[in-house]
Structure formats: structure tokens, C-alpha cells
Fold this sequence. Notes:
nine-stranded antiparallel sheet; 9 strands
Amino acid sequence: xxxxxxxxxxxxxxxxxVLSAIFTIGYFWGKRDNKNLFQTIFNELIDVLKPEDQEFxxxxxxxxxxxxxxxxxxxxxxxxxxxxxxxxxxxxPYLPIAILRDKYDKLLIALHMxxxxxxxxxLIEVKYAKSRMAKTTNADQLDKGTVKWGxxxxxxxxxxxxxxxxxxxxxxxxxxxxxxxxIEFVPGKKxxxxxxxxxxxxxxxxxxxxxxxxxxxxx
Length: 219
């Protein structure tokens, strides 16, 4: 009886104990959810890329993962690497701030090619282009135009009408970008970057047409 009365007279300690329990449970649930989400993304990437070998790991904590994919010698690609940055679902007190700041999970894919992919150029969603996360290499040296892709406004940065038309032809054939927000060709480094918002169960659907299109340009 005495223990109960003593505890009831300390509501702050009771509240702290409850919050501690909620945050602890939230940590393990969020950690599990992020791990499961990454595993789903990783498996979908395998389905699209069809690599000869692959590996993945955790960059730090429970929010960042990497994946590396290797290909056969007859592939036009040497390898593909990907970085997945997930919202900190395991940190309940910080999660609302992270959602306001970062907004969504992120998937950045780098395709390493055996030969240059033509001219440099960008196809980037306008709102994403204004964010602190976006990087548009040599954009100030390229011509700029705007095009509608699905319900989003995208900018095309390119050197020639040929590259601009290449982007527009692809958009005309694939009218919904899904989670795709940026496609960048960097011929000097024999690379192509794809940035997307990875929705569980949608990664393969959104990435497949882009990946097949890029392969068709370098094969």
C-alpha cells in the first residue's frame, strides 16, 4: 500500500516510465520496419537489374543501407550501386521533424557503364530540384526546358535538341514517373544516376522502364 501511494504521488516519474516504454517499443518496431522495407527494396532491385552477384549492408544506425550489384562480362554495365536512406522510424521523438525536413525515404542508384552514355543531361522534378538534396551537375552550362510528366513538372537540362527529344520521347511512352524524381547522365564518368522515392512494392514497377531505356541507349 505504501509503495502504491508513494508511486501515485510522483506522476512525473509515471509519465516518464510510460514514455520510456513507448519509445523503447517504438525503437524496435521502427528498426524492424526499416529493415523489412530495405529488404523489400533490395529484392525488387534484384528483380529489375538481374545481376550476377549482389551484396548489401548497413551504413550506420538503422536508417541507411547500401547495395552493390555485379554483372556478367558481356553486360554493358560494370556494376550498379545503390544507397537507401529511410526515415528514422525507430526514433519516435525525432520522426516528425525528419518527416518535415526530409519528407520521404530515398533511393539513389548509380549505374556504372563500360562506355559513355552520349551527352550529359538531367530530367529532374521541379520541386525536388529546389530541395537541398538535389544535385544537378553542370546545370548552369546546359539549356533548360520544362515538361509535364504525369502530374509533375520536370525540367530538362541538356546540350542539344537530340537529348531533349530523347527525354521527351521516353516520357511520351511512359506517362507516369511513379517515384522517379531525377535521371542524370554523366558521360565523363560513364555513369547514370537515378533518384527515386521508393514505395514498398512499387520500386520494380517504377524503375523497370527507366532501366530498360538506359540499357537501350548504351548497348
